Amino acid sequence: MSCREILLVVHTGRPSNVLVAQDVAARFAEAGIGLRVLADESPELDPSCSYGAVVAADDEAAEGTELVFVLGGDGTLLRAAELARPAGVPVLGVNLGRVGFLAEADSDALHEAIKHVIDGAYDVEERMTVDITAYDSSGAVLQSTWALNEASVEKSSRERILDVVVEVDGRPVSAFGCDGVLVATPTGSTAYAFSAGGPVVWPDVQALLVVPSNAHALFARPLVVSPSSAVALEVDHQGHPAVLSVDGRRGVELPPGSRVEVVGGRTPLRLVKLRKEPFTDRLVRKFSLPVQGWRGPSAG
């Protein structure tokens, strides 16, 4: 039995991804590396491929594996992160979607990524997460969870305005009406927070971002606060209900008077790095930023 094992997570909604998964399975099998697949994905995968075990998508899915190998876009990687973080194993994403900012390799570098894994030629970096607790007006816990990208408190109905108070370190900062407020990590600064007008923060910076979305106020600028700060968002107790969305995947309804507290996560997410690419180059490549006219540092 192989002493090396990998959990394979696939966006099986696209037939082309399933074919790629078969190729990946064959390559790892040839190298003597065992594969686990998820029970809810296995019916879509070719049973003739070398999948050693079928496991439930729970906190023990990645336990004892070397890493989680992801085929898909950022949504698939975020789903895989929920399985990898409890086990403390790293995630390697191969982008088969669109932007795929979290993925370490694009589809044209798939075989190179597989070879790096087979050879054990990769590094691992840790990314900051956030821990989130939502309470109702009585103080009862509605949800306790975590996020890699962001926690977002949003209005629950398009035609209504969400009234919130933003608090940092136990002190009120500002109250306003808005579509929502995001509390994001540096990793999440290129995701939803970016679309809401927040700054791009390099992932090795430790900080929390507070980004209002379409706020009706003179002071509603994005805030960058200490990673040790505690951020709270309070929904007006006389206002409308809201929704808490976590990484765009997990959510809970927030009745009027609810409070959402966000702090730096106790457990980071580990990501596989195949090459020492500066974050600047990744930013330019993923967003196709124009850099014509750049001359570089002076030789002198």
UniProtKB/TrEMBL annotation:
<comment type="similarity">
    <text>Belongs to the NAD kinase family.</text>
</comment>
<dbReference type="InterPro" id="IPR002504">
    <property type="entry name" value="NADK"/>
</dbReference>
<comment type="function">
    <text>Involved in the regulation of the intracellular balance of NAD and NADP, and is a key enzyme in the biosynthesis of NADP. Catalyzes specifically the phosphorylation on 2'-hydroxyl of the adenosine moiety of NAD to yield NADP.</text>
</comment>
<dbReference type="GO" id="GO:0005524">
    <property type="term" value="F:ATP binding"/>
</dbReference>
<feature type="binding site">
    <location>
        <begin position="190"/>
        <end position="195"/>
    </location>
    <ligand>
        <name>NAD(+)</name>
    </ligand>
</feature>
<feature type="binding site">
    <location>
        <begin position="74"/>
        <end position="75"/>
    </location>
    <ligand>
        <name>NAD(+)</name>
    </ligand>
</feature>
<keyword id="KW-0418">Kinase</keyword>
<dbReference type="InterPro" id="IPR017437">
    <property type="entry name" value="ATP-NAD_kinase_PpnK-typ_C"/>
</dbReference>
<feature type="binding site">
    <location>
        <position position="79"/>
    </location>
    <ligand>
        <name>NAD(+)</name>
    </ligand>
</feature>
<feature type="binding site">
    <location>
        <begin position="149"/>
        <end position="150"/>
    </location>
    <ligand>
        <name>NAD(+)</name>
    </ligand>
</feature>
<keyword id="KW-0067">ATP-binding</keyword>
<dbReference type="GO" id="GO:0003951">
    <property type="term" value="F:NAD+ kinase activity"/>
</dbReference>
<keyword id="KW-0547">Nucleotide-binding</keyword>
<dbReference type="Pfam" id="PF20143">
    <property type="entry name" value="NAD_kinase_C"/>
</dbReference>
<feature type="active site" description="Proton acceptor">
    <location>
        <position position="74"/>
    </location>
</feature>
<keyword id="KW-0521">NADP</keyword>
<dbReference type="GO" id="GO:0005737">
    <property type="term" value="C:cytoplasm"/>
</dbReference>
<dbReference type="Pfam" id="PF01513">
    <property type="entry name" value="NAD_kinase"/>
</dbReference>
<keyword id="KW-0520">NAD</keyword>
<dbReference type="GO" id="GO:0006741">
    <property type="term" value="P:NADP+ biosynthetic process"/>
</dbReference>
<dbReference type="GO" id="GO:0051287">
    <property type="term" value="F:NAD binding"/>
</dbReference>
<feature type="binding site">
    <location>
        <position position="179"/>
    </location>
    <ligand>
        <name>NAD(+)</name>
    </ligand>
</feature>
<dbReference type="InterPro" id="IPR016064">
    <property type="entry name" value="NAD/diacylglycerol_kinase_sf"/>
</dbReference>
<dbReference type="GO" id="GO:0019674">
    <property type="term" value="P:NAD+ metabolic process"/>
</dbReference>
<keyword id="KW-0808">Transferase</keyword>
<keyword id="KW-0963">Cytoplasm</keyword>
<feature type="binding site">
    <location>
        <position position="160"/>
    </location>
    <ligand>
        <name>NAD(+)</name>
    </ligand>
</feature>
<dbReference type="GO" id="GO:0046872">
    <property type="term" value="F:metal ion binding"/>
</dbReference>
<protein>
    <recommendedName>
        <fullName>NAD kinase</fullName>
        <ecNumber>2.7.1.23</ecNumber>
    </recommendedName>
</protein>
<dbReference type="InterPro" id="IPR017438">
    <property type="entry name" value="ATP-NAD_kinase_N"/>
</dbReference>
